[in-house]
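Board notes (copied after class):
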Amino acid sequence: MATMTMIQALRSAMDVMLERDPNVVIYGQDVGYFGGVFRCTEGLQQKYGKTRVFDAPISEGGIVGSAIGMAAYGLRPVVEVQFADYFYPASDQIVSEAARLRHRSAGDFSSPLVIRMPCGGGIYGGQTHSQSPEALFTHVCGLRTVMPSNPYDAKGLLIACIENDDPVIFLEPKRLYNGPFDGHHDKAVVPWSAHPASEVPEGHYTVPLESAAIVRPGADLTVLAYGTMVFVSEAAASETGVDAEIIDLRSLWPLDLDTIVRSVQKTGRCVIVHEATRTSGFGAELAALVQEHCFYQLEAPIERVTGWDTPYPHAQEWAYFPGPARVGAAMRRAMEP
């Protein structure tokens, strides 16, 4: 089986769906001729033509607004917002139109579109190229929010999202585009080819939405993570010697609550890790759900390891980024008697 980077896996997913479904169209800033700022759509315009894969003006509201109209008309647009930090001009279209269309039309119309957004830090992008806004989307009824952590999941989830009839926010941790990253920025870059999750089938397959994955079984405590933090949590467990069960949520909302509850009820301890700011972050919702469903099994307070409540700094990138040292410290606190 071929190995792929996450970039190649995402491109393969779009390639498969462009060939499989004539209603799929792909567009956004620089995604056509240029192949995207991260080259996720490279070669697709040449293969499928300018009516299927094309460039859009620098107008996120226009990109998403037109995609909603296309989706209501019967197409399945996959649009790219070049960085998740740029989605704000399109927020009214996403929240007031895409998320509400099925309900306000009493089911007469749906909005089967996917909005791809590179997210997260670790690339020295500063405060306007490093944001993780997933909690802003999980709060909105009618949206699905998905974030893969590896090439295999990235392709299978993206295909599942394109085939789904709901609007999907598809967040792509850009630090993972070319390899897994455990938070040790001073070490050599590890390529995806060295990781088993880089083995990606060439053709069509799906990873079920609303399904979490246990990437590391364990008995001491449960770690809830997604995106880059999956690999940071694995490094922290290895370095601390804590037998952590690490769950990659993958589908943030709707959520695979059953997998979370079974794990926490087994281990009795929970650490939640995400890169976004702490206050009102998605980890707060996860903590509330764990407390509601696992209260009598918890043997220690739930720990959260997150970004700080400040704009993402450029000069102090690694002080902000939740690295293995901070995650490991939370694991040790959770294990205290």
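Comment from the instructor: Residues 213-335 form a domain with the Rossmann fold fold (CATH 3.40.50.920). The mean pLDDT is 97.
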